[in-house]
Amino acid sequence: MKTCLIVDDSRVIRKVARKILEELDFECVEAGDGSEALEACRKQMPDAILLDWNMPVMNGLDFVKALRREETGDQPVVVFCTTENDMAHITEALRAGADEYVMKPFDGDIIESKFQQTGLLRAS
To answer: Phi and psi at residue 23, in whole multiples of 5°?
Structure first.
């Protein structure tokens, strides 16, 4: 079973994302900020990371930069999931190492589609 780390400071968003991802047969781990997420990755690197941008302690952009410097940090597929929707933010996220970008609010179809595009899921 593939694993996904859900990183968001909103417990509600993490709960919604977990429900969607578990329906797609992912085992989920949660983190409330980038610092917690980095610690979780150091314990066990996930297959995928669904990542919020705006969080306390360590934001999503700083997290993805730090992740990509870790020994196996190039392996997880990172999908930013945020309200930041201008091209400058999207470009910055992709340059920092994100693989895809999803706008909030999202639903199961959007997550499934993005995970298919990144190769995490097969098209049904």
So the answer is: -65, -25
Q: Which of the four pLDDT bands, split at 50, 70 and 90, describes residue 42?
A: very high
Task: Please report how many Cα atoms fall inside a 13 Å half-sphere around the Cα of residue 60, on the Cβ side.
Answer: 27
Cα–Cα distance for residue pair 117/9, rounded to 1 Å: 26
How far apart CA 4 and CA 74 sit, in angstroms, is 15
Phi-psi region of 39 (alpha: psi -120 to 50; beta: other; left: phi over 0): alpha
CATH code, residues 2-117: 3.40.50.2300
The pTM of this model reads 0.95
Q: How far apart are CA 50 and CA 34, in angstroms?
A: 11
Query: pLDDT tens digits, residue range 45-103?
Result: 999 999 999 999 999 999 999 999 999 999 999 999 988 778 898 899 999 999 999 98
